[in-house]
Amino acid sequence: MTAILEARGVTRSFGPIEVLHGVDFSLVPGEIHALIGENGAGKSTMMKILGGYLAPTTGALMLDGKQVSFADQRAAEAAGILMIHQEFNLALQLTVEENLFLGREKRRGPFLDGRAMREEARTLLARLDCHVDPRRRIQDLSVPNRQMVEIARALGRQARVLIMDEPTAVLTGRETDVLLEQIERLKAQGTAILYTSHKLDEIARIADRVTVLRDGTHITTRPAEGFTEHAMAEAMVGRELSDLFPAKAKPGADVVLEVEGLTVPGYVRDASFTLRRGEVLGFAGLVGAGRTELMEGIVGLRPAQGTVRVNGTPLKPGSVRAAREAGLVYLTEDRKDKGLLLGKALTENLTLLALDTFGGVFIDPQAEDQALDQAIEEFDIRVKDRKLLAGSLSGGNQQKLLMAKTMLAKPQIVIIDEPTRGIDIGTKQQIYEFIAALAAQGKSVIVVSSELPEVIGLSSRVCVMGRGHIAAELSGAEITEDAILRRAMGVSETTGEPA
Amino acid sequence: QEDSYTIGVAIPSATHGFMGGLNYHAQASIARLEETYPQIEFVLTTAGDAGKMVNDIEDMVATRGIDALVVLPFESEPLTSPVQAVKEQGIWVTVVDRGLAVEGIEDLYVAGDNTGFGRVAGEYFAETLGEGDNIVVLRGIPTTLDNERVEAFEAAIEGSGINVLDMQHGNWNRDDAFNVMQDFLSKYDDIDAVWAADDDMAIGVLEAIAQAGREDDMWVVGGAGMKEIIARIMEGDPQIPVNVTYPPAQIATAIELTALGLVSATPVSGRFIIGSQRITPENAEQFYFPDSPF
Amino acid sequence: MTDTTVESDATPRRGALRLQTIGPVLALIALIILGASLNSNFLGYANVTNVLARSAFIGIIAIGMTFVITGGGIDLSVGSMAAFVAGVMIMTMNALIPVLGIGVPLVAAGMAVALLTGLAAGLLNGVLIAKVGIEAFIVTLGAMGVYRSLTTWLADGGTLSLNFDARSFYRPVYYDGLLGVPWPIIVFAVVAIVGEIAMRKTAYGRHCAALGANEQVARYSAVRVDAVRMSTYVLLGGLVGLATIMYVPRLGSASGSTGTLWELEAIAAVIIGGTVLKGGFGRVWGTVIGVLILSLIDNILNLASIVSPYLNGTIQGVIVILAVVLQRQGKSAD
Amino acid sequence: MTDTTVESDATPRRGALRLQTIGPVLALIALIILGASLNSNFLGYANVTNVLARSAFIGIIAIGMTFVITGGGIDLSVGSMAAFVAGVMIMTMNALIPVLGIGVPLVAAGMAVALLTGLAAGLLNGVLIAKVGIEAFIVTLGAMGVYRSLTTWLADGGTLSLNFDARSFYRPVYYDGLLGVPWPIIVFAVVAIVGEIAMRKTAYGRHCAALGANEQVARYSAVRVDAVRMSTYVLLGGLVGLATIMYVPRLGSASGSTGTLWELEAIAAVIIGGTVLKGGFGRVWGTVIGVLILSLIDNILNLASIVSPYLNGTIQGVIVILAVVLQRQGKSAD
Ligand SMILES: Nc1ncnc2c1ncn2[C@@H]1O[C@H](COP(=O)(O)OP(=O)(O)OP(=O)(O)O)[C@@H](O)[C@H]1O
Ligand SMILES: Nc1ncnc2c1ncn2[C@@H]1O[C@H](COP(=O)(O)OP(=O)(O)OP(=O)(O)O)[C@@H](O)[C@H]1O
Ligand SMILES: O[C@@H]1[C@@H](O)[C@H](O)OC[C@H]1O
Ligand SMILES: [Mg+2]
Ligand SMILES: [Mg+2]
Question: Does residue D169 form part of some domain?
């Protein structure tokens, strides 16, 4: 079959730095073509070029065999090419429906056809099994639901080419399944799909062909058939990969964090749990279970009732700073809106949380620089120019920067919400090792994750949340995917019936 | 009851010294008259622009049922037809200071003399200075009345050979006048006198001159008789030889006459122009009102 | 599950929204009750029409300002632009009397000139902001100085007045109306209704909000952001022209001080009405309420001579803040 | 790791940044050249000290405003706050003469009162904005009306003047100085340097910028956002007090019209200097340049009687816009 969209010898530079080096790539109708590579390899850049958001510096784009150059993304969209961004592309103050139809509103005469749009919005979302009211504002939605809206928006337009940049990074297994089904459906209709994800099992599940990028260079393109996850990972990172999860350390005896009867109005009800020194405690649950809200309640980012004790001392409620001073910090799942100042330099982001440790009255810029060196080293942040703004890092590298920022505060207890969202497999391993090392040093870690293997692989104990409360606490051999899922969905173990 | 009345008084708000004085006199005379004539009620409004003043007048008519209106038009033109409309409803109209654009609307007109204000000052300059002497002028806020004053001033010095080096707007404001005068002093080495067409501006000008240490080189004529300035004239300060009256108390005259016209049969209609006079060390005492804020 | 009412993404947070929405309305009602209790003529025909008619200028402008602010912009030049438009309109009409005589053609010509001048001034702002890319605050602050000084210059430091006969002919456009409703009120109402519909029921309104909420997103959603941004200023310019058409027959003149502080009043009305100053959300009907609140404060201060006139500004300031406190009740800083 | 992390000190956006940064400086230099060519006294000691000393009030205030704007706020009340502070200061000093006599204690008491009044006024703004959560624009617009009217009321519509002898004693604080440099210039310079350091070298400056850039991120980074936001208004209030301490000895008086439009001038200076109006980035030295540009425009217009003074406003407006165009050169709308 002939390629619908093709890139020939595409390079792209930002200022003097070239990040794509003559990449060839093609996409045929009715295929799912996966693009994989490490963080910063150039996947998003490539996708943006194909989607008309960025112009190639040199090289050619071919559409249906004819050379094209998209003036802007609107031109690409007119040619039937749509893209779902790695970073959200939604206006927070607008409603779901307004975002879904932005720029292509349905009209009746000169007026908007609100009813039709709401109907269609419901249909689109229902197709994704997402039951969000179309009249809600995006700013009031949880991160996964925002992602579903983002996906629904692309599904709602008749696309010949659909480019999806890590659509599942913020989704749990259940939503991922729904999404993959939809992708299969589109494929069956002849849509060409370009897909990327750091969850290689997804790639293995749906891809027809796989292209590997490493450091801006095209490494290989081959049929997915017979390309194992392990082989993919090695092709990406260019070296042997050992076991993903390190050995679990044995937690100490003393309790460092005690949460008792914590209620976050509207989200979490009466949650109690404890965390021991040197322990990695996992939090699992479905989207909307309230894990994020519970954690935000604990560190004082949300109004909450109940008590939180750190090393036996009650924490001043409502004060993130007090929590930090007690050695408790929280790493947000929403890196773009709550984690990083995208318009600011790397150092400014890195040191913001721990700024008081950088000099006395005056900030010590040398110490900051050193901290950046160390962060780049320790978290393998791939950055070609240290003076870049945080927003120009690749998504995964932003996540690493956020992780480095949090760790710089030298927490005794760290709550990490979705620690490896958008992180490549090689780095994931490093982060897991890092978490295990923290625990081994006597620090305590809470890992909130929608990736069950991650929760299972890291934690010595797992709290399962369902609909705003802690439904179960599993430890040791009890920790299995099946057990977690059943508890999360509120299915009782004995009968297998919904409670 | 039959013999109770309401008088509406609409004046510009107290944005600078002179208007402050005018506001003071309006309030003081209202307080006095309310004592004397318990049957008269007063409505006082102050406006920062012409539109607001028209609103105020509309409100007085629609909600307060005024029997007479005393107005110092913020600007002549825009107030003309609204005041005319008031008149047409049979309400007594007294206009103060800035006349209306159409003659014969008001029953009573009480005013200062802007042409006179410029002329009297100009005459002093013409008498005192001669061929080749240099002066600078600070004008007020750009308005018709400022134009009238400056034109009259220019007419009065015409032929005297006095050299007007520069004119800038000091906007009847101390700070603006201070800045402008500082710059005049940087720009011109030889200035013999300054006409600062308002005493607020004169204060700023005097300060700038003092800073430059050029008190002995030039004198300053302000205007409208601010009490601090009058006091210095009384002391014979050579830097402020004279001043020109433009009494803010004219509003009190207008309100009193209007009240009198309502309660008594005395005919008070007509025109009262309070001429601008030259204040000199000799007569200064009679223009000194220590209680007035101006 | 149990009785827990864990909120989900399925239900909009109605309660909170409602108080915020209704806040300005409550403030307005409170003012009306206060006015009525202070003076029996307050709700009379004359006072009501007076207040509404005079609100029309700021009102019409504030509706345009709602779009500008919703789109993430600001316009400080509207007051002086109104003065300038009025000046140009008056000069043109005076100049045309020998040609057109006094009558409908003259007034029509004047109106056309006012609208065009307003649109042109708005376009200039829009181009500098949307195309050249200068901060709206600076462009319109500069423009504010420019128009005010140009008007003073045109008027030679004084006042520009419409020829007396022309004015008498034109006067009914402010003072007369339809079925006892003065024209300015009718025009204001029409602009408000059209504005409300445009904001809520058309793609244009959504695009303004999207632009104000997140320009990047709007751009990626095929919204022509530069054009939309520019259009908000042009629209506002046109509405300044329209407001001037109502204003000139009222006072028949223009000077450098015409329209002083209208910009602040208009912006205040917009914000009191619930539009977000940083853009992304606009509420036209709220703006109408905001304008009425501001007008009523002045009106009520005139109803009862309760205080020293020097303190009017204090009372106004406090009421404006209170009107918004009411709106923000229970909502924390954002 | 591979050779991926090629260290390169060539920042892509350097060029653009540099022009943006240097823009206002170029504008200032152009103005200085223009002034020097128009009048030979322009660069003389007297004119230079005059202009700098006059700039000090707005300058000191504008530096505080830089922090407020960087933190995502705005303060429209500073001009009238200055009038109010001056009024309170003068009344207090006059009242204290019988107690303290004329001398250093009196002046010190006056200064303390001015500072405290400024801080209190700033605190009030800050509480309403940061704690009660009302839009800064509305709070400070309301406060603007309140302070202006309170000052008029305190002055009984007129001017509050400092007792003559007290004033003569206090006068040197404006007119004298150190080594020929008048005090206001020295104070302005000190405030500018401290401000620049605070903005760039301290956690406080970083926190202001973080708050303005993204309040959520700041909150999640353990920045006490309410406290920081409030502190910017308190700081500004304190600086208004300080500016007033320099202002009162100049003319020894205050009235309801003192400080009119200072707010707009201060905000304009901040933006001309390169601070972003929507917050997130502030440049104190830029603000100083902005203040000087604005002062020089006036000065040059006075020195060069080239045009009708009616057109001064037009020229000012155009230059302000041009100064910013220079800065935005090559950068598209944001
Ligand atoms: N606007 C920009 N300015 C400068 N450099 C940029 C910009 N955008 C991307 N880059 C750089 O280009 C390189 C490729 O980034 P890209 O986002 O394409 O990576 P990616 O493969 O999508 O990584 P991830 O898996 O982390 O999303 C990175 O080094 C990144 O820092
Ligand atoms: N910013 C927000 N504003 C209002 N409601 C929110 C917000 N974020 C999340 N919610 C609501 O809180 C509930 C739980 O949120 P969320 O989905 O983040 O839970 P979670 O257990 O942390 O799941 P995950 O981490 O997988 O996203 C959801 O029902 C969602 O509607
Ligand atoms: O406001 C004006 C005042 O300043 C001037 O001195 O006299 C006339 C007034 O109208
Ligand atoms: Mg990416
Ligand atoms: Mg979550």
Answer: yes
